């Protein structure tokens, strides 16, 4: 995805797939905390410190509709996360464009996403699939709706620490059928990254990140566990849920800052649904703040303005590689 837009509409300066049998998904029934009762006395309780509302931007030259679930305007408040964008598109989508110095986590909410890049990766992702892309030293890629039909995605930008800004590029297709799921008493944790309930998500991290989709049926409680030193966000994708006593509805994002003096030990936050006829679905991610300077330059995220200038220079001079001349998948 190219650079997201801010509320004023301006650009913000911030392997091939194989068929998968989606019916063999690992499921394990555990209590909602995923921890034994004799460990509860060590657990710190989290709060929600602030709430962001969905910012609707509407259509533009690339997408049929766009919204920001949280914006890149105050990276010190979202560190290590940069922006979360909701995009719905058919054509043209996001044609060839570069990235450097960040990771993108793309969640397909609906439809089929076609992806390709200049180092040979090409394929499609379907509803529920996640792609974790590391754009370290520089990559050129595109994200399109397969056959120009429909793709509805969320894309989270995750920062890379200064010492890993120029790491090798990497793609991880984290298919819905292959991720661990933890179910208990009307709650469900679909684990993408990090640990929960004795399971480890499939994503490999340069900076430790915990990520999952949480689902609660009506009148249910889920105590979600996270490292105490992490900053966490909880974006409500559908329904209404009370998180640490704060009620959030569809499109709102609640933030839980690191606990004072918190380390890698466990903390917990309670999510509850009321007596309604709709389940709640929440995207929950957390990571320890990097506390480093953040400089945006369109699709590049570095630590200094000089590094942004160099990134643009390297892209224009071909150091990212050539822009591919790759046929669309429907024509192959």
UniProtKB/TrEMBL annotation:
Every Pirin N-terminal domain range: 86-158
CDD domains per record: cupin_pirin_C, cupin_pirin_N
Region of interest: Disordered: 1-37
SUPFAM superfamilies: RmlC-like cupins (SSF51182)
Bias-annotated ranges (Basic residues): 17-27
Residue intervals of the Pirin C-terminal domain: 213-321
Pfam families: Pirin (PF02678), Pirin_C (PF05726)
Family: Belongs to the pirin family.
Stated name of the protein: Pirin domain-containing protein
Source species of the chain: Actinoplanes friuliensis DSM 7358
Organism lineage: Bacteria, Bacillati, Actinomycetota, Actinomycetes, Micromonosporales
């Amino acid at each position: 995805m190219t650079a997201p837009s801010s509320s004023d509409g301006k650009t913000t300066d911030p392997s091939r797939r194989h068929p998968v049998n989606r019916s063999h998904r690992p499921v394990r029934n555990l209590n909602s905390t995923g921890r034994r009762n004799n460990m509860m006395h060590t657990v710190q309780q989290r709060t929600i410190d602030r709430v962001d509302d969905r910012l609707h931007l509407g259509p533009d030259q690339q997408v049929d509709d766009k919204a920001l679930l949280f914006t890149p305007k105050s990276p010190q408040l979202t560190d290590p996360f940069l922006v979360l964008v909701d995009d719905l598109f058919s054509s043209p989508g996001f044609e060839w464009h570069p990235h450097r110095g960040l990771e993108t986590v793309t969640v397909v909410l609906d439809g089929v996403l076609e992806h390709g890049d200049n180092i040979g990766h090409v394929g499609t992702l379907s509803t529920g699939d996640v792609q974790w892309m590391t754009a370290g030293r520089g990559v050129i890629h595109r994200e399109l709706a397969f056959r120009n039909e429909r793709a509805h995605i969320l894309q989270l930008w995750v920062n890379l620490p200064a010492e890993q800004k120029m790491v090798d590029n990497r793609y991880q297709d984290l298919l819905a059928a292959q991720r661990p799921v933890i179910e208990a008493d009307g709650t469900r944790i679909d684990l993408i990254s990090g640990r929960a309930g004795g399971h480890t998500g499939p994503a490999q991290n340069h900076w430790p990140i915990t990520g999952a989709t949480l689902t609660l049926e009506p009148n249910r409680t889920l105590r979600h566990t996270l490292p105490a030193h992490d900053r966490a966000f909880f974006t409500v994708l559908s329904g209404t849920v009370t998180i640490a006593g704060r009620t959030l509805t569809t499109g709102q994002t609640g933030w839980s800052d690191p606990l004072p003096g918190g380390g890698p030990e466990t903390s917990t936050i309670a999510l509850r649904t009321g007596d309604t006829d709709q389940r709640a679905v929440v995207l929950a991610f957390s990571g320890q703040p990097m506390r480093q300077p953040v400089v945006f330059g369109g699709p590049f995220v570095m630590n200094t303005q000089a590094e942004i200038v160099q990134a643009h220079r390297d892209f224009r001079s071909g150091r990212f590689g050539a822009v591919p001349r790759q046929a669309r998948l429907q024509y192959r």
